[in-house]
Amino acid sequence: MKDIKVRRFIREPLVQFLAAGSVLFVLMSQFGSADSLDRSITINEEEVARLASRWEQTWRRPPNAQQLDSLIRDYIKEEVYVREAMRLGLDVDDPIIRRRLRAKMEFLATAEIQNMEPTDAELQRYYDTKKSVYAAQPAFSFDQQFLGEDENVAQDSMRMLLQGKTPPSQALSVPQSMEDAEWDSVSRQFGDDFANSLRNAPQGKWSGPVRSGFGWHAVRVRNVVAAGTPALSAVRQRVSNDWRAETQTKREAAAYQALLDGYDIRIAKP
Known about the structure:
Helix content: 55-70%
Number of strands: 4
Number of domains: 4
Strand order of the largest sheet: 2-1-4-3
Distance between the termini: 54 Å
Number of helices: 11
Strand content: 5-15%
CATH topology of the largest domain: Chitinase A, domain 3
CATH class of the largest domain: Alpha Beta
Radius of gyration: 34 Å
Mean pLDDT: 83
CATH architecture of the largest domain: Roll
Structural class: alpha+beta
Order of helices and strands: HHHHHHHEHEHHEEH
């Protein structure tokens, strides 16, 4: 029974990992040259202040002496594990580590732009080249009645409605009325053709039948707000955010290209 427990213990992955690390440590201690990582860990005042600041951000108060000592010990533990993991090559070809390193490099390439504000002239130039993006869509206030999927039945129902009669009701899970709905919103509910038909529909009375993705509808447009291009001041924050995002993308692409130019890329294709 004791032998079985020993064998199980030996088969534990952590035990095997530590054993491999110990063997590697002994070999590197004897031959020296294989160990290229520094075995000196220095915790300077700046690092202690950083640990204390991180604690204070979390707990809204500075750590006491015992807590600070615990933070330092935990940092040392982390540093030892990280260095030993690198010594064992555990960081090599690890997809998670590679993604984190890539993310950090991309961040470094664009860090200075994160909180940068464009000048008025820069923002105006950017806005002038993209006015169509910020143009307001037409908005519609309207009522609709679903007349069914059959066009002939819809025509008969439309005539009844125009005569002041009530056509047979048809259930449909879309709004019967929409208020100041932009073209995109109407299109998502009823389709492009339906949304476009509202542009030229007479206001204040029923018209149709108008086709949608569901079938045929009677439509009564109550109000239309025409499309227009807003002044920069009305959309300044949105434009500023877009400028920053586009500038970040361009800055990261330029930084990557500069790094890439320093490499000789060879691709072996099967």
